[in-house]
Structures are given as structure tokens and as C-alpha cells.
Amino acid sequence: xxxxxxxxxxxxxxxxxxxxxxxxxxDFTATxxxxxxxxxxxxxxxxxxxxxKAKVVKVxxxxxxxxxxxxxxxxxxxxxxxxxxxxxxxxxxxxxxxxIAGLIDSAL
Length: 108
Description:
Blueprint: E1 5-8, H1 13-18, E2 24-29, H2 34-49, E3 55-60, H3 65-70, E4 78-83, E5 86-92, H4 97-105
Parallel strand pairs: 1-3, 2-3
Antiparallel strand pairs: 2-4, 4-5
């Protein structure tokens, strides 16, 4: 079973996130971030559960410094939900799955 989480960087951020027809949960993450690794399985599960309703992407801030700077990401993990090209919900730091799901739900 493949993951439904897309890796996004500065080259495809606009196309994958800002121009998406569906709401997009963006997990701003980094390979060196412990809490990011803790929530990664939850984000993966939500990506599968929300197929067709919302999109879930991961942005490694080391591979996407422009996107991170553009949206004021200074700490990882930072979760942001985009709808129609704008941030409609966000959460700093690791969160339990129901909280992350609630971010997505608020945009549906």
C-alpha cells in the first residue's frame, strides 16, 4: 500500500498547494526533527483517510526554504491547512491525531 502523502518543495509548492482544488494539509518538517518523526505516521494515516476530500503533503524546510520563509515557518513541525491558496488553519508543534484531523475538518 503506497502512501498518499506527496513530498513538496519550492519548485512545486504553488502547483501542489496553492492551486489545489482540495484543501491541503501541509506538514512542514525536517529530517533532523524528532517530534516531526513522531507525528509522521499520523499524517500518513490522515492522508489515506481523507483521500478525495483533502490532500496531505510534506514539505522538508531544508528542501523548501522559500515556502517556509513565505509562510513564516520558524519551527518544525508546523502544520498548516491551505484552502484556495490561503492558510485557513495552523498548529505549531506535534499534535495528537484528532487535533490534526480537526485542522483538516475545519477546511472541508
